Every structure is written in structure tokens, then in C-alpha cells.
Amino acid sequence: MKKKSIHPLIWRWHLYAGLIISPFLIILAVTGAIYLFKHDIEAYIYKDYYQVEEGGERLNPSDLVNTAVNTAGGGDVTRYRPGEDPSRSVEVGLIDNNGDALTIFINPYTREVLGTINDNTRPMDIIERVHGELSAGTIGDRIVELIACWTIIMILSGLYLWFPKTKEKIKGVFTFRLNKGNRVRWRDLHAVSGFWFSLSLLFFLLSGLLWTGFWGNGVQQLVTASGSGYPPSIWVGDAPESDIVTEDVADVSWAAEQLPVADSEMISGYRQASINDIAETAESTGIHPSYDIFYPAGETGVFTLSTFPDRAQDEATVHIDQYSNSVIADYRYDHYGPIGKFFALGITIHKGLQFGLINQLFGLVICIGLIGMVATGFWMWWKRKPKGRMGAPKSESIVRHKGILFTLIVLGLIFPLVGVSLIIIWLINIFIIRKNETLRNFFYR
Questions:
Q1: Is 404 a residue whose pLDDT tops 50?
Q2: Residue 122 in domain
Q3: Phi and psi of 208, rounded to 5°?
Q4: Segment among 76-90, 164-178, 249-263, 324-338 with least mean pLDDT
Q5: SS (H, E, C) 130-149
Q6: Is 254 contained in some domain?
Q7: 201 and 273: one domain?
Q8: Contact, 92 vs 82, CB < 8 A?
Q9: Which residues are listed as membrane-spanning (predicted)?
Q10: Same structural domain for residues 319 and 433?
Q11: What is the domain range of residue 292?
């Protein structure tokens, strides 16, 4: 028996996948569009907390930290941020006696407390959690990863469906036919837009996947194991053999998350260095002034300087022995391998930071374009859908099309969560849909 065209099969998969992931894509696109302007939004919301009038000599960090602790009524200090310029307030992060994570803003010249924020209720942090994990922790992270992976498949299948099968005119392939009736108009708005946005969307999806807890973590480990990770020169002495990595003790750039943390040397009689001394050492390293100082997590922990500002080239992570106040690891963009540098640039572009306003507007256009493609795709299906049926084109079993089956297997290996989802889809189809007449008629008639 002669095999039929694979076009209906790909169309069918494209439709089903699109309908399932569309609600999540809208959430990711909307939250992503907002998050692109995080710094601008927070600069406006917290302008009275951020900005101070420069004047006089700055107070010692220890005085400002004590002021923050007294303001909170006690607690454990976790972070100190001196501010990137003389008109910026100092931030002190701490866990109060109720277990809440607070950020306290202080005028470094007058010791005036400008305001206190509960980190768990900061609007942009909420947006970030929704965008990264649907505010559902690890499960949400895996769902977002799965949606991103399936969106890549959607783009690839969409490009196949878009690709002109004959020598068509340029209209309808690269430009829109807006005067050809509703059906053609909606088709072009969906398909032609998909073509023009495809490359940029793939970039944003792949760079976003670097943050995911499964695929992204796997890429980090692969980069490190391949020799593109952490060069020995970044440590003073031998590289540590530690089960603790930097993301466990501080908020750092993606490239530094798996950086092993050396222990502070617990010499008898040593006391923890004061934040004043640590701040002086931080200034002497010459890192970007937007850095945070994260406090040690225990007796063998280290102070961590972390900065990942707008430009990837300014990223830095520095570990300081909490007793001797000496630098024991210094990891910067220049130390990244070619792959690490590429990923670092991808992340800052994804966040809308690397090229300023142009970068933000570019990301915003991509988010709006994604929403438009989801909306036009859903509208076309809804208008064509027969009553009581799914309306997907009839096609042969994927088993009869070895090339497509092989492609899905490869994608399932590259993106393991896709592979798991394909197995689940197959089981649902075999043991539920095909064994239920109502469902079988709805999906296959």
C-alpha cells in the first residue's frame, strides 16, 4: 500500500500540541513581556527606597547592617548590597524571626531606613516565579520546560506546514494576503508571522531552557564535564572537591551556579571578618559596582560576591574566606569558555538587558508575536471545527512514516521530558481514547 502524504500527520500533531500548550504560552508570553522591564518597573515602584541624596561620608557597612537588624527586630543577615553609585541606597537582606525574607533599604549617609520589602511579595519576583515555574515549584519548573520543548516542536512542524510546496507567489509565503477573505487572511497572519518570528522564538526558547531545573541543569553539567566549565586558574590553590555549589549559597549568574565552593579555613582563634573588611576586599577586586555580598551559610562557608548586571561581560562571582578575608575563587566572564560566553550572552539578551532599550523592545515584539500566533491559530481551529468533533485532519499512523517517527525519537532524547510525554500520549491513545467510542469518534472521526 502506498504511503500517503505526511502533511496531514504533521498538521494533526501541530494542532493537538498547539491546543494543549496554548494557555501556558499565553502566560509565559505575558509574564515575559512584563519581566523585560523589571528594572524600569522597580525603579519606579521603589524610587523612594532606591534614591538618596549624596552628601557627606558614608557610614560603615556594619553600622548599616545593625540598623537593619534592629529595624526588623532581629534576624539573620544574608546579604549586603552597597549600591552601584553614590545616589543609590544600601540594601540589607535578612531572614527575620518569623522566617520571612526581608530587604531593608537604608540611606548610607544618614542611617535613615527608607523602607522594608517582603521579598516573597515583590510584584516582579511573583512575575518571575510565574514565568519560570508557574508558581508551582519543581513541578511548575518541569511543566514550563516541557512547554518550551514542545513549542520548539511546534515551530519546526509549523515551518514544514508553511514551506511552499509549489512555486507560489511571494504573497502568502513571505507577505500577508489581507484582501483575500477571512480564511486566507487568518492563515497568513498565523503562518507567515510564524515564519518571520521562528528564528527569534527558537533563540528565546533555548536560552530560557538554560534556567530549567532538568534540561538546563543537565547542560550546565555537560558544559563543565566537557572542559568548557571552570578553569583551575580561578581558584587560589587547588580546585576544591566540594558537594556544595555556588547556587546553594548565593544568587549568581547561570555560568557560576555549579561552581564548587571551597571551605573557609577554620584556624584556631580566628573570628569571622567584619562586613567592613569584606566590603573593602570587594572594592579591591574591581568587579562591577552592582554586586551583592552574600553571607556564609555556616562555620565553613564563604562570603560570596555576585554581580550579573546588564552586560554579560561584567558578570563576576568571587568567594572570600570568612576568617582570613582573602579571595579564594574569582570567576568572571573572561574565564568562561566559548560555550559559556555564548550562553551568558543568550541569557542577558533573553532578559532584555544586553543591549538596553532596543533589546527590551525586541523581546516585547517577540512576546506580542507569540500571543498573536497562539490567538490566530486557535481562532482558525475554532471557526473550522465541526460540531462534536476535534476537526483534526485524518492521517496514517506515525509508524508508517519512519522519518517523522525517528525525528520524534531524536527530539525525545535531546529533550527527555518530551520523550516521557510522548510515551504518556501513546499510552493514553492506546488504552483510553481508542477503547472509548465517544472519545474515538471525537478525535478520529
A1: yes
A2: no
A3: -70, -35
A4: 164-178
A5: HHHHCCCHHHHHHHHHHHHH
A6: yes
A7: no
A8: no
A9: 12-37, 143-163, 189-211, 361-382, 403-433
A10: no
A11: 231-336
What's the CA gap between 368 and 4, in Å, rounded? 37
Task: Count CA atoms within 13 Å of residue 182 on its CB side.
Answer: 5
Question: Could you tell me if 241 and 326 lie in one domain?
Answer: yes
pLDDT digits (tens, 9 = 90+) for 296-335: 988 899 999 999 999 999 999 999 999 999 999 999 999 9
* Residue pair 336/227 in contact by the 8 Å Cβ criterion: no
Q: How far apart are CA 208 and CA 149, in angstroms?
A: 10
| Backbone angle region of 237, left / alpha / beta, with phi > 0 → left and psi within -120 to 50 → alpha | left
Are both 328 and 256 inside the same structural domain?
A: yes
| Same domain membership, residue 244 and residue 196 | no
Interatomic CA distance for residues 142 and 424, integer angstroms: 15
Looking at the fold, whether 374 and 429 belong to one and the same domain comes out as yes
Residue 113 included in any domain: no
**Residue (of 23, 2, 292, 309) closest to 147 by Cα position:** 23
Q: Cell 485532519 appears where?
A: 393
DSSP helix/strand/coil, 107 = coil
224 occurs within a structural domain: no
What total of structural domains would you count in the chain? Answer: 3
The torsion angle over the Cα atoms of residues 374, 415, 128 and 352, rounded to 10 degrees, is -80
Domain final residue, candidates 336, 368, 393: 336
Is there a single domain that holds both residue 191 and residue 151? yes
The reply to whether 161 and 17 lie within a common domain is yes
Which residue is listed with cell 523612594? Answer: 48
The DSSP code sequence of 254-301 is: GGGTT-B-PPP---TT--PPPHHHHHHHHHHHT--TT-EEEPPSSTT-
- Residue 166 CA to residue 196 CA, distance in Å, equals 20
- The last residue of one of the domains, among 336, 366, 381, is 336
How would you class 185 by CB atoms within 10 Å of its CB: exposed for 0-12, middle for 13-18, buried for 19 or more? middle
Instruction: Report residue 409 as a C-alpha cell.
Output: 525519537
**31: closest CA among 131, 154, 177?**
131
Q: Which residues, 6+ apart, have CB-to-CB distance to 382 below 8 Å?
A: none
For 344-375, the pLDDT digits (tens) are: 999 999 999 999 999 999 999 999 999 999 99
Query: Is 312 within 8 Å of 333 (Cβ atoms)?
Result: yes
